[in-house]
Specification:
Blueprint lengths: L46 H12 L5 H18 L5 H17 L5 H17 L7 H11 L4 H11 L6 H26 L11 H25 L5 H7 L2 H14 L4 H19 L6 H9 L3 H5 L8 H18 L2 H13 L5 H34 L18 H8 L23 E2 H5 L10 H7 L3 E2 L4 H19 L28 H12 L12 E3 L2 E3 L18
Helix pairs in contact: 1-2, 1-7, 2-3, 3-4, 3-7, 4-6, 4-7, 8-11, 8-12, 9-10, 11-14, 15-16, 16-19, 19-20, 20-21
Length: 559
């Protein structure tokens, strides 16, 4: 007869000070354990397929036919992933297959159960730490398996006589129940789908995080520099405590004392980061461009400029030169253009992207004119020194380049000065197909870009064509400012002039506009004032506007 231990009565401790009640100490509430999510490539297509197989095996309505169907699914999973298919899934399949054979009256059922049970334990031993007998007993106990299962496996694999069928049947039921509790049910309750298209490798995530952190410092510091806050003391008054702390920590690590020095340090770190990762990452450019377009102040600063644009251009010169050296300048430009054409983006971002795209077009035109002038000089003087246009990405510019820059018809203080990619020199011109793609999404945000791209077309437009297409851009932009819809006019309309008749299936693109311009250029006065209202698709010219009497830079309907 067992005896229970007698508990000692609790002795109340006296309070150190009489008359004062002791405050009960609050027991801290333990937070629920955080379940760490893992990303795993599974042999099943999604959670629906896994849950369906679970129901076939363990559901209340599970039948012999459904269990057969589950085994077929598991065979497909095994083919998909091979030896990477989860051991618990394979262990389940061998036990279920033995049970189905038992129901069909297999006369060698004892051998079938023994073989299945041995394979079950071999599958599960692949996740067990160690293979000696003592470690198997200990691990089986930790997993919730009874110790007799280790002994039974040994008898099935090495014994002279197999265990009775009844023992094998009950053991297989026990092991299947353990597999359901240990593996299938937890996965069914916690597993979730993951879009493989949005899955990023760890190195990409690490790179994106590093670039985003650097560009965040750049964006914050650019605002401070543009607003005249150079020293940390002035920056602390302009930025919040968390933002200032980021700038302070970075400036301390780089020993940068002013906002300008911090901007230069960020550009240097970006250059080193790209060189380190460029050879091992295919999506580097897309990640880099995406991070650039996330800078809030950088995109919006062009809308705040009054008379101090030279400060902004001087501050961002290093960033654009870095893009030119890396060969990313065209990709970033196209991304900015597409941002202006995206109707789902906020107005501020579209306007900001339009500003920087227009500034880049100015630089493209400057570089194209400089190369043409140099070629003309070289044709006249073959002894002229060779010029490396990639040196425009540095502050050390040769005398010849400096002279070409002066005669390129730009203001260097308000123009982004960058040159060729050192590894691949090319003229920054755009195919007409690229320009044609800008016609359909024409808006007030992208209008300056389309107009700026016209002189950079390849093959180039003639002088008359450039003037006429520029006028068409201005006319359409004026219509947008008056809240006119951008929908195309009905193609069934016809021009009054016999020279401009068009069929109902006319395509209104730059090819069509070019034909109209070529026809108009044959007129002596090269004007549209004699033509009636023309149907130009999304473009439209009114017949009552006398362009010949308009002052330079003034629209006739704006007088």
């Amino acid at each position: 007869m067992g005896t229970a231990k007698k508990e000692k009565p609790e002795v109340k401790k006296k309070s150190p000070e009489k008359g004062k009640q002791q405050k009960a100490k609050a027991v801290p509430v333990q937070p629920p354990p955080v379940v760490k999510q893992r990303t795993v490539v599974t042999p099943w297509r999604d959670t629906l397929e896994f849950n369906e197989t679970y129901d076939f095996l363990f559901g209340k309505t599970s039948t012999t036919a459904s269990r057969r169907q589950a085994l077929s699914k598991i065979r497909i999973w095994s083919l998909r992933r091979g030896n990477l298919c989860p051991a618990a899934v394979l262990a389940t399949s061998v036990l279920v297959e033995a049970q189905l054979d038992d129901k069909e009256g297999n006369f060698k059922i004892q051998q079938a159960y023994a073989s299945a049970f041995t394979r079950f334990y071999n599958f599960m031993s692949s996740i067990i730490q160690g293979y000696n007998m003592s470690s198997m007993y200990e691990t089986a106990k930790e997993l919730g398996l009874q110790s007799f299962i280790v002994d039974l496996r040994h008898l099935c694999a090495h014994g002279q006589e197999l265990p009775p069928v009844e023992v094998l049947r009950s053991t297989s039921d026990h092991c299947l129940d353990w597999l359901r509790t240990y593996y299938w049910l937890p996965h069914k309750e916690t597993m979730s789908n993951l879009d493989a298209g949005k899955l990023k490798r760890k190195d990409k995530l690490k790179f994106e995080k590093a670039v985003s952190a650097l560009l965040e410092i750049y964006d914050l510091t650019l605002e401070c520099h543009f607003k005249g806050a150079e020293k940390l003391k002035a920056i602390s008054k302009l930025k919040s405590s968390s933002e200032f702390n980021k700038i302070r920590v970075y400036s301390s690590a780089k020993k940068a004392k002013t906002a300008k020095e911090i901007l230069n340090a960020v550009v240097t770190d970006l250059s080193a980061l790209i060189k380190r990762e460029s050879s091992s990452m295919k999506d580097l450019l897309d990640i880099y461009t995406g991070c650039l377009l996330k800078m809030e102040y950088f995109l919006g600063v062009g809308l705040e400029i009054d008379d101090n644009e030279d400060i902004l251009i001087a501050a961002t010169q290093g960033l654009f030169r870095l893009l030119a050296v890396q060969g990313y300048i065209e990709k970033v430009f196209v991304a900015l253009v597409q941002l202006t054409e995206n109707e789902n983006e906020p107005e501020e971002r579209r306007l900001g992207a339009g500003y920087w795209a227009s500034k880049m077009i100015e630089s493209f035109g400057m570089l194209l004119r400089m190369k043409r002038m140099y070629k003309e000089e070289l044709d006249l003087n073959d002894k002229l020194k060779a010029v490396d246009f990639a040196s425009l990405n540095t502050d050390k510019i040769s005398k010849t380049l400096r002279s070409l820059l002066v005669h390129s018809n730009v203001d260097p203080s308000t123009t982004l000065i960058f040159g060729d990619n050192p590894k691949k020199s090319r003229s920054l011109v755009f195919e007409r197909e690229f320009i044609m793609q800008r016609v359909a999404p024409f808006s007030k945000y992208s209008a300056p870009i389309l107009k700026g791209l016209l002189p950079l077309a390849d093959p180039p437009f003639s002088k008359v064509q450039l003037e006429s297409l520029g006028e068409l851009c201005d006319v359409r932009l004026q219509g947008l400012t008056q809240d006119e819809p951008m929908e195309e006019e009905s193609s069934s309309k016809q021009c009054s002039s016999s020279e401009e008749d068009s069929s109902s299936d006319e395509i209104y693109d730059l090819d069509y506009l070019e034909k109209l311009v070529a026809t108009a250029s044959q007129n002596k006065d090269n004007s549209f004032n004699k033509a009636h209202t023309s149907d130009l698709g999304i473009w439209k010219l009114e017949s009552d506007n006398d362009w010949s009497k308009s002052a330079l830079g003034v629209l006739p309907y704006g007088q």
